[in-house]
Design brief:
249 residues, 40% helix, disordered C terminus, four-stranded antiparallel beta sheet, 9 helices, 11 strands
């Protein structure tokens, strides 16, 4: 029992010391760069360096006193391979964020449950040209067993809530049939103006935290992202699905 209490006490002391270090580092960075939007500070992969994740998903590697920092990706040599350690951390962070999402706040196009072979999560804008092209492939994707889960990412941002593009995204998510409204909006058809409690701002902010800055951006279950238009065949190939022989009839 005494040993366990000692371990618990030591753990509490380390946590307090770590929090104090984080506060010192945060204060030092913000003193020099007040506009810095710090999302989190964690121990880095190298002793003495901390990983400071910013709101846009980028990372600083800083010494604990904040006097020196490195902006950009950190690489490590593993045997004969060169590994992007920062991207590895990004993948993990995206997976954690994706796991926290509620699918009921997405607009989902899916084959029957027993025919789903894979799913992708896509940040989209209803007025984006390549988003519209991507949406024309969704029916074929569903036939191949791919479920498409849409998240909102208004290209003009969320600082202009009265802009026509933002209002159209809100109307789409608030529609009685959001899937139909999304299909109509992406076909440049008129949809009814609607408002409701909606996830547009949250999903846009989440996208920024994941490093998303363009539409369409496709997120895979392992945390990888792919920016830009993909045909159903290209997406199926990326997902390594045998679509040529397994398209449901």
């Amino acid at each position: 029992m005494k040993y366990l209490l000692t371990l618990l006490l030591a753990g509490m002391i380390l946590n307090v010391q770590a929090e104090e270090t984080h506060q010192v580092l945060r204060g030092k960075l913000l003193q020099a760069i007040p506009e810095l939007e710090i999302q989190s500070i964690e121990m880095g992969p190298v002793d003495g360096l901390f990983s400071v994740t910013l709101r846009d998903g980028s990372v600083l590697h800083a010494f604990e006193d904040g006097t020196y920092f490195i902006y950009g990706d950190m690489y490590r040599i593993q045997g004969n391979d060169l590994v992007n350690q920062t991207e590895t951390d990004r993948l993990l962070r995206r997976r954690i964020l994706m796991d926290s999402l509620d699918e009921s706040n997405m607009i989902v196009f899916s084959p029957p449950v027993d025919e789903v072979k894979a799913s992708v999560t896509v940040f989209t804008d209803v007025d984006c040209y390549y988003c519209r092209m991507f949406h024309q492939e969704v029916l074929e994707m569903n036939k191949m067993g791919i479920a498409v889960r849409y998240l909102a990412f208004p290209r003009q941002g969320i600082d202009e809530p009265h802009s026509s593009g933002y209002k159209k995204m809100v109307s789409t998510w608030c529609a009685d049939d959001p899937g139909l409204a999304l299909t109509k909006a992406k076909a440049n058809q008129q949809i009814a103006d609607k408002t409701c409690i909606n996830p547009i701002d949250f999903q846009y902010t989440l996208g920024k935290e994941m490093g998303i800055n363009a539409t369409p951006t496709i997120l895979f279950d392992d945390g990888r992202i792919s920016t830009g238009y993909k045909t159903a065949a290209q997406l199926s190939s990326t997902l390594e699905l045998d679509y040529l022989t397994e398209i449901p009839q």
